[in-house]
C-alpha cells in the first residue's frame, strides 16, 4: 500500500502546558515523565462535544479516549495506565501503542528481500512480534502540533532490530468535532524493507475497567469475507479461507458473548481480509462497527489497509486465578476485557507471495489511513 508522493521532514516542537486553538479540537501538552533517558510528553485533544483523546510520545501511544454515553455520562473507553511507569513495565501488552516497523508476526524472525536474507529479533518464541524486542512502541517519538493535529515522528536507523534501511516514520492524530479520530501514518526508507504499522488500542465501550462481563454484551460487525489461517503459534500457513459458514463470519451484527469462547484459541486473535475490491483503492473504507447497547456507545472503524487483526485480549490474566493487570484509576484488567481492531497488512506478509506486498522501496511513500468514530 505505497504511493509515490513526497513527505515533509517535521521539526519537533515541545512546549510544556502549551495550548493551540484548532478548528475541530483544542490541543494541550504537558510533561509526563521520562523513558530511555528522554522526556515524555502527553497531548490531549478535546472537541466541543466534550470528547477527549490522550496520546503520549512514548510509543506514539493512545492512553485515553473519553466519550459520553446516551445519558451524557463520560467514560474512558480504552485500557491503559495512569503513568509512564505502567507503560514501561512488563505488564504492558502494547496498550494503545503504535507498533512497527512490522506489526504482528514474522515467522522465525526471518525474511528475504531482493535475494538477501535478514534475521530480525525474536521476541515471542522463535518468532518476531510487533517489531521485535525494542520495536517502535518502545521508543520516544518527537512531536509537534501542526494546525489541528498532533504529529509524531521517528527515525529508525539502518539495522534497527535487524531490519534493513533507515526509515523516517510519522503518525498524525486528529480529533474532529463529530467524534472521529483520524490516524495517518507515513514512512519512507533508504533501502527496501518491510513496513506494516498499526495502532494497538484496547477498547471496551462500557468503560475501560468493566472487563469481560461488559465486553460480552458488545455487538460487532466486520466487513471481512476471508481470513488468514494460522498454526498453533499464530503464524499464517498461507491459506486464505472464506469466513462463510464459520465462527469467523462476523459480517452481520454478532454478540461477542455468543461466539467468543467457541473460537479456536479461546477468543479472536486472527487477521481478517477486507473484500478484494476494497483493496484496490488507497482510500479509507468501512472495516467494522462495534456497539455497546446499554451505554449506547458505538464505534465505526475505517481504513485503507487490506486486513484487520481482531484481538479479544485472550492473553490478559484470567479473572478466576489472577490479580490482573493494574490499570488506570485502580481498575484491574482481565482476559476478554477489551477488543482490538488493528488495521494492517496481513501477518507475515513478507514471507507469503499470495499476501499483499509489504516491501517499501526507496523513492516510495508508505501511507496508512484509519479513522475511529466513537459516539452515542
UniProtKB/TrEMBL annotation:
Signal peptide segment: 1-22
Keyword Phosphoprotein: yes
Keyword Isomerase: yes
Any one cellular-component term (Gene Ontology): cytoplasm
Catalytic activity: alpha-D-galactose = beta-D-galactose; alpha-D-glucose = beta-D-glucose
Coiled-coil annotated spans: none
Molecular function, one GO term: aldose 1-epimerase activity
Compartments where located: Cytoplasm
Binding site for beta-D-galactose: 104-105, 200-202, 269
A Pfam family it matches: Aldose_epim
SUPFAM superfamilies in UniProt: Galactose mutarotase-like
Gene Ontology annotations of biological process type: galactose catabolic process via UDP-galactose, Leloir pathway; glucose metabolic process
EC number per UniProt: 5.1.3.3
Record keywords, A-Z: Carbohydrate metabolism, Cytoplasm, Isomerase, Phosphoprotein, Signal
Superkingdom field: Eukaryota
Active site: 200, 342
Name of the top EC class for this enzyme: isomerase
Metabolic or biological pathway: Carbohydrate metabolism; hexose metabolism; Carbohydrate metabolism; galactose metabolism
Role according to the record: Mutarotase that catalyzes the interconversion of beta-D-galactose and alpha-D-galactose during galactose metabolism. Beta-D-galactose is metabolized in the liver into glucose 1-phosphate, the primary metabolic fuel, by the action of four enzymes that constitute the Leloir pathway: GALM, GALK1 (galactokinase), GALT (galactose-1-phosphate uridylyltransferase) and GALE (UDP-galactose-4'-epimerase). Involved in the maintenance of the equilibrium between the beta- and alpha-anomers of galactose, therefore ensuring a sufficient supply of the alpha-anomer for GALK1.
Subunit (UniProt): Monomer.
Family: Belongs to the aldose epimerase family.
Cross-referenced PANTHER family: ALDOSE-1-EPIMERASE, GALACTOSE MUTAROTASE
Protein name: Aldose 1-epimerase
Species for this entry: Odynerus spinipes
Amino acid at each position: 500500500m505505497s504511493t509515490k508522493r513526497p513527505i515533509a521532514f517535521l521539526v519537533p516542537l515541545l512546549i510544556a502546558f502549551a495550548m493551540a486553538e484548532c478548528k475541530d479540537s483544542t490541543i494541550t501538552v504537558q510533561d509526563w515523565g521520562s523513558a530511555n533517558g528522554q522526556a515524555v510528553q502527553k497531548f490531549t485533544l478535546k472537541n466541543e462535544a466534550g470528547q477527549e483523546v490522550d496520546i503520549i510520545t512514548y510509543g506514539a501511544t493512545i492512553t485515553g479516549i473519553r466519550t459520553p454515553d446516551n445519558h451524557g455520562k463520560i467514560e474512558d473507553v480504552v485500557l491503559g495506565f495512569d503513568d509512564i511507569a505502567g507503560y514501561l513495565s512488563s505488564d504492558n501488552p502494547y496498550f494503545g501503542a503504535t507498533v512497527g516497523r512490522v506489526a504482528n508476526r514474522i515467522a522465525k524472525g526471518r525474511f528475504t528481500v531482493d535475494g538477501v536474507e535478514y534475521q530480525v529479533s525474536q521476541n515471542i518464541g522463535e518468532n518476531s512480534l510487533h517489531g521485535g524486542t525494542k520495536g517502535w512502541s518502545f521508543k520516544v517519538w518527537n512531536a509537534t502540533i501542526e494546525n489541528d493535529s498532533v504529529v509524531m515522528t521517528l527515525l529508525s536507523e539502518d539495522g534497527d532490530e535487524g531490519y534493513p534501511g533507515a526509515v523516517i516514520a510519522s503518525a498524525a492524530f486528529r480529533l474532529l468535532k463529530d467524534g472521529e479520530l483520524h490516524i495517518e501514518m507515513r514512512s519512507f526508507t533508504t533501502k527496501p524493507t518491510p513496513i506494516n504499522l498499526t495502532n494497538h488500542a484496547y477498547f471496551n465501550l462500557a468503560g475501560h475497567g468493566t472487563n469481560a462481563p461488559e465486553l460480552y454484551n458488545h455487538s460487532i460487525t466486520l466487513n471481512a469475507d476471508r481470513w488468514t489461517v494460522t498454526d498453533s503459534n499464530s503464524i499464517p500457513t498461507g491459506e486464505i479461507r472464506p469466513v462463510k459458514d464459520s465462527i469467523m463470519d462476523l459480517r452481520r451484527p454478532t454478540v461477542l458473548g455468543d461466539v467468543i469462547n467457541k473460537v479456536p484459541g479461546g477468543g479472536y486473535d486472527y487477521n481478517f481480509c477486507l473484500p478484494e475490491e476494497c483493496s484496490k483503492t488507497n482510500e479509507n473504507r468501512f472495516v467494522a462497527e462495534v456497539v455497546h447497547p446499554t451505554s449506547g456507545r458505538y464505534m465505526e472503524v475505517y481504513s485503507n489497509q487490506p486486513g484487520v487483526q481482531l484481538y479479544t485480549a485472550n492473553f490478559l490474566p484470567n479473572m478466576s486465578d489472577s490479580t490482573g493487570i493494574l490499570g488506570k484509576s485502580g481498575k484491574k484488567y482481565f482476559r476478554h476485557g477489551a477488543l482490538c481492531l488493528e488495521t494492517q497488512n496481513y501477518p507475515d506478509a513478507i514471507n507469503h507471495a499470495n499476501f499483499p506486498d509489504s516491501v517499501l522501496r526507496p523513492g516510495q511513500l508508505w501511507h496508512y489511513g484509519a479513522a475511529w468514530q466513537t459516539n452515542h
